[in-house]
Each structure stands twice: as C-alpha cells, then as structure tokens.
Amino acid sequence: MTDVVVRQMSFSTDRSLLLLTVDWRAAARPGQFAMLKVGDWPVVPRPFSICAQDREAGTTSFLIRRRGLLWDQLLRLQPGATVQIKGPLGNGFPELPAPLLVGGGCGVAPLLFVAATRPVAGFYAGVASAAEQAFLAPLLPAGTVVTVKPQFVTDAFLASRSAGPVFACGPSSMLRVLANRYRGGPIWVSLEERMACGEGLCKGCPVRRREGSVALVCSDGPVFPEGEVSWTWQD
Amino acid sequence: MAGLTVAVAGLDVVSPVIIPAGPGGFGTELRERYDLTALGAFTAKTITPHARIGNPPPRLVDTGFGLINSIGLQNPGIVAFLDTVYPTLLPFPTHLFLSIAGETVNEFEDMARTLAGVEGFDLLELNLSCPNVEASCGVIGANPQAVHDVVVAVRRAFPDRPVAAKLPFEVPDVAGVVRACEQAGVDVLALFNCPHAARFDVATGKPFLARVTGGFSGPALKPLTLAKILAVRSLTHLPIIGMGGAWTADDVLEFRCAGADLVGMGLHTLQDPAEVCTIAHEFATGSS
Ligand SMILES: Cc1cc2nc3c(=O)[nH]c(=O)nc-3n(C[C@H](O)[C@H](O)[C@H](O)COP(=O)(O)O)c2cc1C
C-alpha cells in the first residue's frame, strides 16, 4: 500500500458521514474503488468508492459512513496525517453517455464521480437524515432529487417514469427493488461486499451469477449488468 | 539483514518467507502484478476433486488485529485448475507449492496420482485442516489414524516430490498426529491452519459471518502459534513451515526461534503483496 497525505476532512453535523480528501493522483474511472487503511490498526484495509478526483490539485475524495472498526481511527486523523491506500481497483461503470443515476446512502459516492465526468439524464439520491441531506447538497448536481428516510429513493425514481440506462449503487435491498420494477432500460449495479484484498486474491467477496458461477465483487466488479446477478447471495 | 537460505526437504529456498495456501489466490494475479522472485515459495489456494462455489457471504469479518475468513475452499476443481489456471503459472518465478483437500483417502490419493504426472511444481501440501467446510477434510488432521492413512496413500501415488501436511490449530493429540506424519512419510509440517473464531453484531445479536464461525488469522495469533510450534519442535526433526500471525521481518526471526524453518505470511499478503515480497527480499541470499 502507498502512503498518502490527508488534505481535508469534513463531517456531516450528525457525524455519520465523512468526506475524506487525500493527495492521490492515480487516474481512476468512475465506479472504481480503493482500499484504505489508517496506521497499523485495523490490519485489514476497507474498500471505498472513489467519489471525486481533482486532477489539477492532485487529490481524490471518498465518502465514508460511520461503521466498523476503521471509523474510530478516521476520527483521530487531522489534515497532514498519513493514510495507506491501494488502488484504483475494480472495473468501473461503462462509458455510456447520459445515464440515470440512483444512489442510496454512501452509494451516491461513485455516482457523484460519474456526474462529474459527463452530463447525466437524472440523479436520484436517498439519504438517512436531514443532516446527511444538508451535507451532500453542495456535492450533488443541480436538479438532483433527494429523498430522506423513511422515503425510498426507488419510489421517487420510479414515479418519475424516467427511461434510459441506469447506474445504481446502494444497499442490495434497494438494488433489488430497481431490478424488479424498472422497465425503462438496462441497469448497471455497483455492489457492496466486505473485502480484504480488493484485487481478486482472497475470494472473500463473492456474487452468484445467474448462470450459477461465482464472481468476485472486487475484481470482476464492483459494477455488473443487473441481468448477470443472481440476488440469492446478496441480501 | 544477512541472507538466509534454507534447505527444506531437498529444496533450496532463497528466503524463509513464503506465501501460504489461500490468501494469495491461485497465483495468476500475483505473478502478473508483483515480483515474486525473492519469496521462498508460493502456495496456490487449495484445490479439491470437484469445483466448489464456496460459502455464501459475508465471508469476512475484521477483528482489528486479525480477520476471520469463511471462504469455503472456492475453487474450480482439479481438472479445470490444471486445464485453465495452472498453465498461466508456468514457469513460476519461485518454488511453487500446490495444496489439495479431499474428503476421503481415495480422493486424496486420486488427486496425488494426477499431480504426480504434472511437471512444474515443487511440493504437494495436504490441507488436512480447513476450518470452513462441513466435510471431513476439515478434521482429518486432528486424527492420527486418518492422517496416517491419507499420507500413506498419497506417498504411494506421489513418490518423487516432497509432501507437506497442513495441520489444524486445534489438535487434541498433537504428539500422535506428528508421529503419524513422520511414520507415513511426510517431509514437511505446515503449522497451522486458522483456528475457529466468531464475531457478533451487538446491534442485531447476529453473527457477522453467514456460516457463523470462520478461520482466524493475523498478528493477534502470533504468540499462540509460537507456543504450538515450539511444542511440535520438541517432538520432531521434520522441517516446519510456521504460519499464523507473522507480519514483520522480526516476526520471521521469532518464528525461527520457536522452531520454524520457513514462515508463511497470509493476511499480510492479502493486504499488501508487495510488502511481503520486500520482507522476503531482506532475507534473500545476496541482499544486504
Ligand atoms: C482468506 C484466506 C484464505 C485461506 N485459504 C486457505 C486454503 O485454501 N487452504 C489452506 O490450507 N489454508 C488457507 N488459509 C490459511 C492460510 O494458509 C494460513 O494458514 C494463515 O493465513 C496464516 O496466518 P496469517 O494470515 O496470520 O499469516 C487461508 C487464510 C486466509 C486469510
């Protein structure tokens, strides 16, 4: 893993989300991720979608939700501190123009990167609280439809009667609803799974394909055409 | 650090640092992406007689100073492995070890016979200890008679290259199992596979892993592994590949103090293969 310096950290007012910006200029495609680690503990790094890259400033940003052992370490960081990074990893979204974007929670992170690289036909973002909504507002493109729990982002999206290719990222329950109910075009889903190596070695992040074989979210994905995924293992 | 070449079961090994079975996958990706020449050896992930899709996710849970894994021996089966994966490995940049697991003596013997006709790898490891499968291959290693029967059959079918036995962490009769290995003709002991472990989500009361328990590895395990290696060292002169918690160059030396000849780095490989190769290089003959 490579040492990189933390440039900026900002938290939502309820401290459930962190936008972490580091000095890292490895060119990534939207939908790719990196493994991040802080010092020696926890020893296993965690995967995070790349949320933004500023080529001129040479920085990369990640949107991180409070969860797991790494969070306490992140809370102790200050700008100027060092974190370890491995990536960019994974396949990324296809090069389609003008996709519709549907994201739940931290699932908006890779979609923000998509929206920064091309015009999009619509952006639907579901968040957990008003605090998260306020935090994400400046990052989301104009015209984004935001729903706050207990509203479902999938309801807002389906009610819009949009048609066209969709890029979706979020909890598997959300992705399944889209897969079952959206008939307006093809869907690409970016899956979330616990990972350890991020590069296809350990076989820790499996997804069943419809034809029966097992793919790895890290190295075969994280983006899959929805039609390839058998959801039997992704609950 | 001084070069530390080790001769194990007739193999000259450039560095005591090796990659054990599993964390580095089958080797295709590692071989493409990293310079493995300073490693003592690489062990490909365990293969079985038939394809296994492995366990449902979640297969991993972090414990801070370690990881619990529940992969369940996902692999394409020996036939597909030899047809499609193995050719991509050759020639391998360091010693290549293959690992096999079967559920019966016959399954081990058949795989060993197949592999006796396959060139290009240097040692056959018998995984007698996977913590993540219901089948009997998870417990063979705890039973001296079963170990004896498997090894005798494998030795018969695979006479020309060294054979290692990978034992479980939890063995009631260690002395009996080690004696069985010696008598049946094992050349190297691989000590140990991951001990059983579990974690629960306090918010839901449920286990994190789909199969509840998995195999624990990582730095937290080191002192426990060292005590067990020491105990085995007092029982046998067989070469030992120690593994379970080795992370740094100092850990390699510490494992050797306890009696290991070679040292496997599993979890470290999985998170940073390049760093493991650098540590291996520190020990490799000729480097300073
Ligand atoms: C993700 C993962 C997969 C593993 N798969 C296998 C396997 O297929 N066969 C086997 O004999 N051991 C397997 N092991 C155990 C390792 O070979 C080794 O015993 C262990 O990782 C050593 O401990 P360490 O990770 O602390 O270095 C696996 C370990 C991990 C972490």
Automatic annotation (TrEMBL), chain A:
PANTHER family in UniProt: DIHYDROOROTATE DEHYDROGENASE B (NAD(+)), ELECTRON TRANSFER SUBUNIT (PTHR43513), DIHYDROOROTATE DEHYDROGENASE B (NAD(+)), ELECTRON TRANSFER SUBUNIT-RELATED (PTHR43513:SF3)
Please state what the protein is called: NAD-dependent dihydroorotate dehydrogenase B electron transfer subunit
Q: Record keywords: Membrane included?
A: no
Kindly list the positions annotated as binding FAD.
46-49, 63-65
Name the Pfam families for this protein.
DHODB_Fe-S_bind, FAD_binding_6
Q: Which UniProt keywords apply?
A: 2Fe-2S, Electron transport, FAD, Flavoprotein, Iron, Iron-sulfur, Metal-binding, Transport
**InterPro entries given in the database record:** Cbr1-like_FAD-bd_dom, Cyt_c3_hydrogenase_gsu, Dihydroorotate_DH_ele_sf, Dihydroorotate_DH_Fe-S-bd, FAD-bd_FR_type, FNR_nucleotide-bd, PyrK_electron_transfer, Riboflavin_synthase-like_b-brl
Q: Where is the signal peptide?
A: none
